[in-house]
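I am still getting used to backbone structure tokens and would like to learn alongside you. Would you supply a protein for us yourself, any chain you care to pick? Start from the sequence, derive the backbone structure tokens from it, and show both lines together. Go ahead whenever you are ready, and we will take it from there.
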Amino acid sequence: MTFTPYILLACFLAGSTACAQTPGRTAQAMERSGFVDVRSMDSTIRVSLMYARADNFTGRVLYTDLHEAYLHPKAARALAKAQKILKASHPELSLKVYDAARPMHIQQKMWNVVAGTPKNIYVSNPKNGGGLHNYGMAVDLTLCDAKGDTLPMGTKIDYLGKLAHIDNEAEMVKLGKLTPEARRNRELLRQVMRQAGFKALRTEWWHFNFITRAEAKAHYKPIP
């Protein structure tokens, strides 16, 4: 969307609140393609997109005009279900989304950072069709308290290393690299997401897929 000088002046006089709430071009394109803002399904879900900031593994801001978390409607409904499941047992907690639907051109920028390095196992290659984020069928998230502060999970989201893997957590606890509290928090997150129909990714405690990659390629189109 292009703002005219009159709109910009109006936004300035209004304290720019309206402008801040206006979806960017990427968000508008996702809506036109049928993707859903997850907070329209459940406004209690918190969103803090990590690629809209520079404190991610690329060290760059990749989402220059996207601050909302979009998913395919099926995945968005399942995420809202997960939030309800969590609230039923832990009303003081909330899901906090760090990434959801991701355009393929952003996927390419991420791949360029890890290509040719041992870290490339953590990023899907666009040449191979990308990953489920590129279909709006995957979500990266954590748990947070009522203030929005994230619970201890052992690593930050976006940590590319074995400590983020979910299949060696018991060993990591024994070695003192992962606290029992962080392990319990991870288990709670997995429990909630699985009950809602998501599947955990072995190498990233924060990543959950709603369908398989084969299903996505067969029935859906990636986001350009």
In short: Residues 23-219 form a domain with the Muramoyl-pentapeptide Carboxypeptidase; domain 2 fold (CATH 3.30.1380.10). Strands lie at 36-37, 46-47, 70-71, 94-99, 138-144, 199-201, 204-209. The chain has one domain: 23-219. The CA atoms of residues 102 and 134 lie 5 Å apart.
